[in-house]
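Run log, item B.
One chain of 208 residues. Sequence copied directly from the ordering sheet:
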Amino acid sequence: MFYFTLAIFLSAVITILAKNKAPKIFIIFKPLTTILIIVFAVIFFKGSNPVYFTLILCGLIFSLLGDVFLLYEEKYFVHGLSAFLITHFLYITAFLPKGNLNVPSLIPVLLFSFFIYFLIKRGVGKYKIPVLIYIVVASVMVWIAVNNYLVHGNSRSVFIASGAILFILSDSVLALNKFRSKIKFAEMFILGSYYTAQFFIAISLTFG
């Protein structure tokens, strides 16, 4: 597991370094890093819940599709957004805890998400509705993941909640950088937190 994790880390670092300096390398390593995470999930799955495994695996595969679409975001931005929207729906289904949901915990998640939307709404233009839908669904995903931790409080739920939070933070910085104003070192944070989020979610499959 250590060497596979190291391979994912190195692939992610190459992706980040290549973003603005070596486009051809970036095009290869951006999806490759997600592919390595998918392979990691398949190889090291130790759980006894095939439904959870299938939902997470499908979520990672749709994330890979989103990664590919966003390599050409000027033309396929909505396609990429849609792929990640499906990912969030799959993760919501996978993360649903076996217990009551804490409704008040949804409030801070929504406040944060709509604050981000308030900051970017002037710049989203024709993407206003798709972006708003995405924000709502991503917020629900984080809320469900946090509730998974509140209900179960085990190691798996820690990685689930941490992965979900990092995912929405990555999305938030991406949105601010794209629709509001350029942020220094934005790509480093966006890609770093995104890959860490997906890796944490993949790690949740390694608990029996």
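Observations after the first pass:
- The two ends are 16 Å apart (CA to CA).
- The chain has a mean pLDDT of 95.
Flagged for discussion on Thursday.
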